[in-house]
Amino acid sequence: MKHLFMSVVLASVFAVVAIAQQAPLPQIPPPPPPPDGQGAPLPAPPQTVQSFPPQELDRIVSPIALYPDTLLAQILAAATFSPEIPAAAAWADRHHYVPADQLPAAMAADQLTFQPSVQALLPFPQILDMMAGDMPWTEEIGAAFLSSPATVMDAVQRQRQVAYGYGYLRSNAQVMVRPGPYIEVLPVNPQYVVVPYYDPRVVFVAPRPGFNVIGAIRFGYGIHIGVAFSSWGWGATSFGWSTHAVIVNGAPWARTWANRAVYVHPYPAVVRYRAVGRPPEIHTLHERTAHERAAEREGHRREEHR
């Protein structure tokens, strides 16, 4: 009887396991389209909330903590739509030769479906390339910003204080560095956005004796963003460091972990296209050359090929 009882128990267990294996996994519904009825559906965000300790956040923000405030805010907003970054990087790379003031027309002709916060970075193919080239990092910083923008901003300020304390971060011909309880980094010319190049392994540690700290951050390369991209928030994007506010396109950025599947930030002048019925590509496609990429990395003026 004992052996018979054990056989019945084991048979029941195996039956339950078999049924569990055959049962379909719950399907996560796709995010709904924006409430205004326009534009492509929001890209599916991560499904598990992530929390990062301060030391980990310092590491995550270190590659962009010293960027000008306007560019930094745009990167953080775009990172919350990380699934769109690789395709946006590819489009920006192949259209990099289009002047910034003509880029909105090219975007409209191609009826791009990227979220406006991702489109805002299209004039900066090297930024999108950096984000697409390290998607785990992009997903990390996007998730951190969705989960707790205040702690991300605090981490940026910690890193800026370190770089300023060691003498690396200073005002120059391209950026104004305003020290204080909260360090601001602002372009000298608001319509010319510079991209800094630095090694986090250098600028956040004490310099060795005789090291030229001023040359550790290069601000030689930038983009004349002008009024052409004002619809995407350039000229109306900033941080309220003391209140932990991020202003994008003149409005507080309010995309959080809770509303990530439905939140649509106001970009009233940006047309939101759907993927269905998009016109064929009409532009000549030129990827950046190795020489161009090297020039950007070194902070030099990019020489366009024709």
Q: Overview of this structure, please?
A:
The chain is of the alpha+beta class. It has one domain. It has helices at residues 2-22, 54-61, 69-79, 85-94, 103-110, 116-119, 125-133, 135-147, 149-165, 200-203, 290-297, and strands at residues 175-178, 184-187, 192-197, 218-224, 238-240, 245-248, 251-252. The strands form 3 sheets. The protein has a 3-stranded antiparallel β-sheet, with helices on one face. A two-stranded antiparallel ribbon has the order 1-2. A two-stranded antiparallel sheet has the order 3-4. α2 (54-61) crosses α9 and α8 (135-147) packs across α9 (149-165). The chain is globular, with a radius of gyration of 23 Å. Mean pLDDT is 82; it is low at 1-37 and 302-306.
The span between the termini is 87 Å
Strand order of the largest sheet: 5-6-7
Principal-axis shape equals globular
Radius of gyration: 23 Å
> Strand content of the residues, in percent?
5-15%
Provide a count of the helices: 11
Largest sheet: 3 strands, antiparallel
What does this entry show, briefly?
With about 300 residues, this protein is an alpha+beta fold.
Please name the defining characteristics of this protein.
37% helix; three-stranded antiparallel β-sheet; alpha+beta; two-stranded antiparallel sheet; 306 residues; single chain; disordered N terminus; disordered C terminus; 11 helices
Set down the secondary structure blueprint.
Elements: H1 2-22, H2 54-61, H3 69-79, H4 85-94, H5 103-110, H6 116-119, H7 125-133, H8 135-147, H9 149-165, E1 175-178, E2 184-187, E3 192-197, H10 200-203, E4 218-224, E5 238-240, E6 245-248, E7 251-252, H11 290-297
Antiparallel strand pairs: 1-2, 3-4, 5-6, 6-7
Helix pairs in contact: 2-9, 3-8, 4-7, 8-9
